[in-house]
Each structure stands twice: as structure tokens, then as C-alpha cells.
Amino acid sequence: MIVKGHPAHPGTGEIVAEAILEAITAGGIDPGVFALIQGNTHDLGAALVTHPTVRAVGFTGSLGAGRALFDLCAARPEPIPFFGELGSINPVFLLPNALAARGAEIARGWAASLTMGAGQFCTNPGVVVAIDGPDADGFVARATEALTATGPQTTLTAGIGAAYARGRARIAGIAGVTTHVLGDNATRQAAPGFFEVDAATWFARPELADEVFGPAGLLVRVADADEMLRLARGLAGQLTCTLQMDAEDAGLAAALLPVLERKAGRILANGFPTGVEVADAMVHGGPYPASTNFGATSVGTLAIRRFLRPVCYQNLPVDLLPPDAR
Amino acid sequence: MIVKGHPAHPGTGEIVAEAILEAITAGGIDPGVFALIQGNTHDLGAALVTHPTVRAVGFTGSLGAGRALFDLCAARPEPIPFFGELGSINPVFLLPNALAARGAEIARGWAASLTMGAGQFCTNPGVVVAIDGPDADGFVARATEALTATGPQTTLTAGIGAAYARGRARIAGIAGVTTHVLGDNATRQAAPGFFEVDAATWFARPELADEVFGPAGLLVRVADADEMLRLARGLAGQLTCTLQMDAEDAGLAAALLPVLERKAGRILANGFPTGVEVADAMVHGGPYPASTNFGATSVGTLAIRRFLRPVCYQNLPVDLLPPDAR
């Protein structure tokens, strides 16, 4: 296994690699099983994924960079699997009874999830969908309060900070977008952005569904449950979809569920998608572009399967079988 | 699910589709879950694999056709998995003690496997590897007898028959190839071919390792166990690798096994690879070009996983969970 360290934290990468090397040494394993390569050029990534001895690639990053590496993997003389995680807007559906009963609490929770870690999470809940009415107005007011109170945070790199500022400005500049919060962004900082569109604008401007990496949230105000379902049906692949629902919302939730199951790798109720537990049931993947392999997950115990290949032993003498199969 | 019927047997395809439709009707399932499309153009295949609602493709066929479809799947705006099975020469290793003890029997078994169904099996054992010596001579004599006695058989299509004749002539025409058997091929017929090369020729002419679809067999005569291991290390991905071995061959088998496990989806001892049982342990796949997805199998109960996508339900009310997860 070769890890290309993230160029934003070469020292951390080095410390982690040393810990891995210690475990390898302690376990009496050949140190050749692991290598850390540091660097920050496209050529390095391309050289790694096209090298004949590399047989599979795992990647987390932007749709553009990921697709370029995916294409290189697919074009090899011997194509290899590319397990890429390329972005997600992680929509949160505010079902009407939950919104009426707990709108303020949900707004605070959403703002906290949106701004956690300067919004630098692949599961950042960038889009919220609510049915028009006074409860939606209340949600906007509470979310605006919470996000206004949240100051700018330092991003991992100046590049992430700059890309966030550009992405936020792109959303704010689209006709039909209302801006509720737009904090000042100093260099390498990300301050929350909070925007709103109606469903007509959402459907007319597909670029509103592009991920903005950072604490930018967009509320889509739909007319009714049917329009919420229509929005769900139009979604691209997602890592997560979330329902905020009370018992009285079960009918609408049941209508949304068969749609969302086809859109996302993880469906949450009454939580927020940031925070990915490493557990047997965890799925961190989903239809493209959430991931490039719909059957895979990059978090959870199932993740190791991405790199396994089944072998059938037919009639082999027991002594020749792998110890576990004897 | 859409099946493109093989143009060589449209009537059989129709009968099978009718049986599936009957099962769908009896089960009260929406008939839209299954469709049969008949046709024989490249455009039809291309249209199917690039259609936006198609989300995964299974394919069995030639390396050329399969790679073209794989490339179309990978180049889509939303890339989809292509589970292709693109050819294999299924090498059989004749270990010295087995060859000495049972050479004649193995030769007859190999000839029967090679010519079964006019050699039209993806698991057809096209290459046999033996260590030089009188036992190898004996194998050649017995295999020649058995293959000479086997007449030409009708291939599925005239195209397959013609491609077989070309492939066989290609092998026969390579300098250093000895021809032992070369039966007459009438139109749409395939008569056995049996050829031999030494290891130097095998390593110098990589095209000897290209699949010839039909009853053409090639013996590679190696100098010793080390050269047999070297040949194994140089193999491309295979559906199967077979060891003909007796108890005294266990040392060489143990040396070959870690190499072959990295080359093939199925390792057999003292059998022949034609005949793929549908069983829990079956793997019909392997590294490229045996298959385009090393983690998948197209036969066996694991095959359905190719088309499944895991979904994590986090905190959903029990009533909303799929019945099996309640």
C-alpha cells in the first residue's frame, strides 16, 4: 500500500507513517507493505495510478481531480478499480410536523453541522429542503441567528479558503438566490454563508446542486410535499440524505424513502450527517459522484472488501489451502 | 434488467425470455423488471451501455468487444461498472510426479476438456505446461492420439468457426511452434489443434498467450521447476489455473500456489476447468483480462453482489426500515 500524503499536512503524514512503520515492525511484517509518498503535483498522482504494479486506488477529493484520476485508471492497458469519493451536498429534508414542533432546535443543529470544522466535511449538509410557510420562515430566522453568531474559521489550506470564497460568491450571484448570511472571508478563512431559493430556481439552475466545500448552506423552499418528492427524484448521487421527521411525518417519509435509497449510501433520521462512525453497518459511498463505485464504502468494516479478490480452491489438498480455509 | 440476446440463437433467447416472463407473472412482479432485446450490431451494444438509466453491465465475450464496451461505460458522464469476462487460456501445470504416474490419463482428460463443446468454453484449458523429459513425450503422444481421434465439431456461428481457423493458423505460423495435430476445418467447423513450444519461444512471443476460442491446445515444455515458476509469474489474469499433482508434488505445488492465487479466480487440483458449478464457493472471474472487476464473479451465489449497493439506515423509525432489517 502506497499512501500519497496530503500536501497540507506533511508533518502529520510523517508522524502517522512512523506509527504505521512501528506497528509493521512490531508485527514482524515486511516493511515493503507500506510506503508514504509526499508531494503536490498532478504528475505524482498520475504516475501512481498508472504504475503497472498498482492494482487499485482509493481517493477522496474534488470531482474534477477525481474524475481525471478515474479516467487514467480506466484507460490503462490493464484497467484497475478507482474508489473515489468525489463530493456530495447531503440534502436534509425538513418534514412539516418536525419543522413545526422543533424548527428552532433543528435550525441550530443544522448550523452546527454545517460549520463544524469550517465546513470541511464530505458529509457537510449543504442543502436543506422545507415546505413554504411560517415554519420555514422560523427556520430561516433561527438558522440565520446561529450562522451569524458563528465566526470565520481557518481552512486547511489557502487554496480551500479561496475555492470556498469563489463557490459562495457563485451561489450568491445566481438570479433568484436570496442571501441571508454572508460573513467576511479573510485569506484562508471561511465564514458561513446562508442562501435561499425557491423550487423553480432550483430546478432551473442545476449548478445550485454543485458542492461548495465549506460552511455554505442553501435552503430550497418547495411549495408542498409533491415538490419535495420531485426535488428528491432529481438529485444526483449523495453520500447521505437526512430526514428530520416526527411520528406524524411517517407518510411523507415513507414516500421519500424509496427515492432516497436510490440516491444515497446513508439515510439518516433526526440527526446530522457530519460524524461518520467506523462500524459494521456504516456506508460511506453512494451513486456517482458521491462515489465512483456504487457497491463500495470507504468507511466501515466493509471498506476492506474494496481491495479483496475472491479465489475459489477446487479440490486442493487440505495442506495447500490457506490456514483459514483448512 | 435488460438482456441482449446472442444473435446466434434468437429462438432460444425468446424461449428463455418467455419462461422468465411466466415466473414474473406467477410472482406478481412488475413485468418491467425484465426485457429481452435482440440484435446484432455494435450500435445496439453501445446504445445499451451508454443509456442513462442503465446502471451496471454484465458481459461475456472477446477482449476487443469487451474493452470497447468497458471504455464506453467508463467515459459516461456518470461512469458505471462493467463486469466483463474477456478471455482466458486457463493454464494447466503438469507436476512431475503426477505426470510420471498418470500422464496418459491426464492427457486423455485434458483432450476431452479441450474439445468439449467444440472448445467453446471460457474455461477451455488452452495451455499445458510440462517439464521436459520422457514423461512429457508420453503426454504428447497420448494427447495427440486422443485429439486426432476427435473429429471436427460444429461451432455456434460461422464467425466463431472462422475466427478459430484464423487463431489456430496464427499459432501454427509462429517460428518455433511444432504442430502435433491440425485437423481439417470445414466451414463453421472446429477440428482440434495441438501445438508445442519451448519456454524460450513462449517468453519471446507473448501472442502465444492470447486466447484462441476453440479446441486449440498448446504445450509449453519448460526445462525445470524454476522455469515453470517463471512462466506462472509471467501469466496475465486467468479465470482458472490447474495443478495436476500427486502427493510427492506438494513442494512444487506450494511454490506455485502463491503465484497462481494472484493470477486466477479459481485454482483446481487434479481436475479440468471446464464445467463451472453454481455454488456458494464458486468464483468465475479473476484479474484482467479474465474479468474487468477483480472483486467480482459472474457465476456462483456471490454474483448477485455485483448489482447490489449497500445502504446504511441511521436512526430510522423501525416501521420505515426494509422488512428484513426490522
TrEMBL record, chains A, B:
Name of the gene: aldH
Protein name per UniProt: Dehydrogenase
Pfam families referenced in this protein's UniProt entry, alphabetically: Aldedh (PF00171)
Superkingdom, taxonomy of origin: Bacteria
Occurrences of domain Aldehyde dehydrogenase (ranges): 1-232
Native source species: Tistrella mobilis (strain KA081020-065)
Keywords: Oxidoreductase, Plasmid
Gene Ontology molecular-function annotations: oxidoreductase activity, acting on the aldehyde or oxo group of donors, NAD or NADP as acceptor
InterPro entries referenced in this protein's UniProt entry, alphabetically: Ald_DH/histidinol_DH, Ald_DH_C, Ald_DH_N, Aldehyde_DH_dom, Aldehyde_DH_Superfamily
